Amino acid sequence: MSYFRWRHGLQYARPVKTVFLPWPGRGPRLPYKIQCHSRRLCYCKTDSNEVEMLDLETGKISTWTGSETGALLRVCLSDRYLVLVSSETGLNNLTAWNIHTKQKLSQRISRSCLSHSIVEDKVVIIPGHGRQPRPVYVWDLGSNHVQSIGSFSNLKLCHMDAAENILVAFEINCEKHPLAVQQTKWRTTTGQLVEQKSFFLSMPDRPVGPSFWIYNECSRTFGHKTVTQLFTWSDKYATGRLEYDHAADRLSVQWVYCNEIIQEYPERAYLTPNLYYRSSTKVDKIAVYNATTGTATLHAKLLDSRNMIRISSPKSISQKIRLGKWVFDVFGDREVLGLAVETGVHLSFFNPKFAPDLRRWSKR
Predict the structure, then answer these.
(1) Domains and their CATH numbers in the chain
(2) Entry pTM
(3) What angle do CA 188, 192, 195 make, to 5 degrees?
(4) How far is residue 344's CA from residue 111's CA, in Å, rounded to a whole number?
(5) Residue 84: how many CA atoms within 13 Å on its side-chain side?
(6) How open is the CA angle 64-332-96, to the nearest 5 degrees?
(7) What is the pLDDT of residues 24-45, one digit of tens each?
(8) Which among 198, 196, 158, 159 is positioned nearest to 180, based on CA atoms?
(9) Which pLDDT value is given to residue 317?
(10) How far apart are the C-alpha atoms of 126 and 251, rounded to whole Å?
(11) pLDDT digits over 311-351, tens only?
């Protein structure tokens, strides 16, 4: 019964519990980046190279330090590793912590990077957009080795098979119909090209208009599948969804439709392979996109103070501001969804077996 309640809650934005946690000691100032994974909440400290990690089971807060040089740019969190990315002139400084053993690793790569993701013990670093082709980097945290992979100009999706040490990359020309796809497979230990093929991918009921926009930073890997999103200027009600199934070696694409415009650049988070949440500053709702049904449903933004347990916060911050509705980040997994606002974070718990009473340790 609890599984069906859990699944139903995710599909219809009905959490078991919703709480509000103020950013500790910083008033209305915002952390740069927030992550929530495996019952841990991690956020950058303001004007610092440190991040704080809050254990949602125990209430324990720990501090983790990034590079001593450069500004802290990104945070990646998995069930085993925490990766901090700092930038300085021409370089990205990478710091990885094993959150169980406290082992620390460091590397440096070129600065032209758009996103970072952790797949088991591999960090996949996607290049930024530019006119010149650029490589993907794979950082093996087991051997502390960074391998440069290929050179890509229209990279839209990457899948990392950590067990096989294989990276599958898809370059897609979205201006053609059907979509022109080049698929390559690479050995991540040596950078060797293993396989290459080209094919066309038909997109059903494609809107007529300008080319698509792609956001690799919202790609998410779930086991043998990786998913990402496509956006187009010509249909603001539709979001394209790319999925690669490595077990079947199959790339597929579909449209997911919403009956209200969300925004061209919304915040979003994948909670399961087929469910992702999008929020917007223009629409006071949250959209739950369901790839199984091909539709999206709009719900209250989970910021309603009447349904919220409000943890203590500085009295100088008014309730209206403290529960402000400007959501600048959406993050989480299938257990916990986070909506970050000016002065804190709204956490929605969906697992009926994991709805902790945060008031027990909120004042620690």
Answers:
(1) 2-360 (2.130.10.10)
(2) 0.86
(3) 100
(4) 30
(5) 29
(6) 30
(7) 655 444 555 788 999 999 988 7
(8) 198
(9) 34
(10) 19
(11) 444 333 333 334 445 666 788 999 999 888 777 888 999 99
